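Lab notebook: predicted structure, single chain.

Context: the supervisor wants predicted structures on file for every construct in the current expression panel, including those that have not yet been purified. This is the next one on the list. No modifications to the sequence; it matches the entry in the shared construct table.
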Amino acid sequence: MSLELLVGQIQIRERTGQGCVAENGFCPDWIADNLDKYWSPLLEHVWLSVVSVAIGFLIAFALAVVAHRRRWLTGPILGVTGALYTVPSVAAFLLLLPITGRGNGTAIVALVAYTLLILFRNITTGLRNVPAEAVDAARGMGLTDRQVLRRVELPLAAPEVLAGLRIAFTTTVGLATLAFFAGGGGLGELIYSEKAGTGGIRFQSNVVVAGGLAILLAAVGDLIVLGVQRHVARWQRVAQA
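Prediction complete. Output recorded below exactly as produced.
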């Protein structure tokens, strides 16, 4: 009777993965049982990353267009965006808390600040690498500055602009794992906190799943922007051929 009870206990322990959890190992059973709890944080992470990069792109694009027309503004803008980029990420989230409070808004403000330098540099570089002959020819045809920007400069600058977008998105996905310090949620809340229910950062399976989802999100976003880049810049492949 006692032997049957012992065998039963061993079977239950293996099925629930409790032994593996207690030993802080990589536990497939625990992952399979708890995978659904990552769905909501993953959606929060996607929201934080996409919205932050979108807002950062709009701001950086406006600044880059102005700096493209007024070259003397490039240095001051690079100085400000560079200073924002050098602020330690955890410090940025915590410093914003007394001003904007806990929540997604604070996390997005900080994440947007980190995208500006990357996007501004790539957009200005792309615009300035447009051959002067192409711009002169467009102006010779009577196009206004706005038409030259839309029809000539932006299409030719697209590879550099979208390359910057890829770097900004990948960087933002990584930084967003710290957004939980500002109450922004995301996958970092499961990596660093006790919400995984098994000891937070000390539990390897939890770190592997949450970290793996963040890497997967960055890879998917990069592939999507790369696809857009290849579609928009088809002229580049034709020119190289």
